[in-house]
Amino acid sequence: HQILVIHGPNLNMLGTREPEIYGSLTLDQINQSLVDCARQEQAILSTFQSNSEGELVTRIQQARTDGTTWLIVNAAAYTHTSVAIRDALAAVAKPFVEVHLSNVHQREDFRHHSYLSDVAKGVIVGLGAWGYEAALRYILQQPVS
Ligand code: DQA
């Protein structure tokens, strides 16, 4: 497998950003443990974070031809607003797991709707950084198609 992890806006601030909601691990720490976990299973994992919707769309589009087999996507606040990111994911037609660190359903109403969930293979919310690892372990069990 070749897995691309997409992190949306403000996730570069993990570790210091509302740690009671998002945990105390930094994005680098989360990414490093995902890379290590993938490597142990002979998979390749790369990560991309941007605060810009357009950059996220462009990187997702590249996944159509760069060998990516699956994506793990935490679009952060764009989850709740972005038709463009949804369309990009639909256009590349690669399966993806949607992940949120926090349980968005326990939070404000505006976080209850996701533009991505109905096109995702699955959705993991509320398990903190472990949600990314759970998504990765699931993907590593899937046949490469
Ligand atoms: C988030 C939840 C979103 O509602 C929020 O805007 C984020 C992070 C999460 O991982 O819990 O930035 O995607």
Automatic annotation (TrEMBL):
Active site: 22, 100
Sites marked Transition state stabilizer: 17
Pfam families, A to Z: DHquinase_II
Keyword annotations from UniProtKB, A to Z: Amino-acid biosynthesis, Aromatic amino acid biosynthesis, Lyase
UniProt: substrate binding residues: 74, 80, 87, 101-102, 111
EC class: lyase
Pathway this chain belongs to: Metabolic intermediate biosynthesis; chorismate biosynthesis; chorismate from D-erythrose 4-phosphate and phosphoenolpyruvate: step 3/7
Annotated GO biological process: amino acid biosynthetic process; aromatic amino acid family biosynthetic process; chorismate biosynthetic process; quinate catabolic process
Enzyme Commission number(s) of this protein: 4.2.1.10
One Gene Ontology term of the molecular function aspect: 3-dehydroquinate dehydratase activity
Domain of life: Bacteria
UniProt keyword Lyase present: yes
Signal peptide: none
Catalysis performed (reactions): 3-dehydroquinate = 3-dehydroshikimate + H2O
Record-linked PANTHER family: CATABOLIC 3-DEHYDROQUINASE
NCBIfam families: aroQ, PRK05395.1-1, PRK05395.1-2, PRK05395.1-3, PRK05395.1-4
Function: Catalyzes a trans-dehydration via an enolate intermediate.
Subunit structure: Homododecamer.
Family named by the database record: Belongs to the type-II 3-dehydroquinase family.
Protein name as annotated: 3-dehydroquinate dehydratase
